[in-house]
Input
Amino acid sequence: YEPPPKGRYLILIPKGWTRDKMSHSRESGNPGTTGFRVKPGMTETSAWRWFSELYPAIANHLGPFAEKGKKRYDKGEYWWELRACDYYAAFEKPKIMWPEIAGDARFTYDDAGYYVNNKVFIISDGSHYLLGLLNSALLRFFIHNNCTDLQGNSYNFSGVFVSRTPIRSIDFKNPSEKAVHDKLVSLVERMLELNKRKAALPPSAEREKIEREIAITDEKIDDIVCGLYGVADGERARV
Output
């Protein structure tokens, strides 16, 4: 439930972005802030000049990498563009995220539009209910037993393994099931808030108090999840 690390930014220029922007500038007759006018059939050199004059700070940052950028096999229409990708929009949605390689299965939630690298998996449009299930002791026990055990006390939590996890669906027409769902979601939202507060604090008595509340809330979530899956007390002790 810990908030994902942040502080770095991705310069996202998707394939076709330059052409679309220049086409819009040409059709509208708007030269932008520089007075540079876009003409049909512009060369890459001219396109880079247009880009540099409109976005000088980004161009200054990217400029030193031009030669390497031109040699990339996965570039867009121009070397400063990224390759085509069908799931940029998935990063912008609220999502569940988890690391591929870790010593323990752990899932967190992002609703701030973070992008992740290829060592992190996401479930786009993931819900707080699903997050609570995946972070429960019961489903983490299942995930650990279905993922590849690696050297160094770590596991491979690839999507192909995690996707085998049985997810308990809720009958929202059943008032008792809906009540259980809502209670679990409320506890998960509490966990997210507590972990956010914890991350903002240095080691202190206040932080220790929050950690105790996190442990108590986590146990409540485990109780609910075990009930949803019909886990008996004896079986729960094994988990």
